[in-house]
Amino acid sequence: MNKIPLRYSGLTQLVDSSNLYLIILENMEKNRHIAIVCNDNVEHELSMRLAGKVNTTNWLPEVLCTLNPMMSYEHYEVLINGIVDGEYKVYLISKDDLSYTSIRASDAILLALVAKLEIYIEEKLFNQQSCAININKERVALPINALNSDMLNSALKRAIALEDYELASLIRDELNKRTSKDKA
Predict the structure, then answer these.
(1) For this protein, what is any one GO molecular function term (predicted)?
(2) What are the pLDDT digits (tens) for 118-131?
(3) What whole-number distance in Å separates Cα of residue 94 and Cα of residue 127?
(4) Exposed site from 10, 19, 75, 170, fewest CB < 10 Å?
(5) Taking the model in full, what pTM does it have?
(6) Alpha helix (H) ranges present in 52-133?
(7) Distance of alpha carbon 106 from its chain centroid, rounded?
(8) 110 or 157, which is more confident?
C-alpha cells in the first residue's frame, strides 16, 4: 500500500451552513487537497490551538498525550484509508506493533495537531478524492461522496431551488447508490 503524507492547510466554513466546517489537508507538493467535514465543536478546538492565545494544557487531547508520552510521531500515525457514506475511515496506527484504532476523521486531525503526528492517506483514495488547489478561487472543492446523507439531502433541495438540475441529478444518483447499498 502506497500512502501520501498530508499536512494541515486550513479551516473554512461550509457554504450555507452555520455549524459545519471543512478541514483542509494538502499534499506536500501543495497542489492537491482533500476536505474533511467537521462540526463547530471541532472547529473551536482547532481554532483555539492554532491561534495560540489560550492555554490548552488541561484540555482533553493534551492531557491524554501527557498521560501517554508514547503518543508522538515516533510511535503513532494517522491513516485515512477509505470513505463510506460520506465519512472518511481513519485509523490511529501504532508504529511499534501495527495495531490500529478507528477514530473519527476530525478528531484524528485534532489529535495529530496536538501530538504532532504524521497524517497519511492511501494513494488510490487520495487520487480519487483530492481536488486541485486553485489559489485564485475563494471556494474549496469537495467531492460529493465526502458528504453525509443529511448534507446531500440539503444540497439536493438547494440545487433544485437554484434550478441546477445537473447537480441535482448527481446528488440524487449518490443518494440512490447509498440507498441501494443499504438494501443489499
Answers:
(1) nuclease activity
(2) 999 999 999 999 98
(3) 25
(4) 19
(5) 0.81
(6) 60-67, 105-115, 123-129
(7) 6
(8) 110
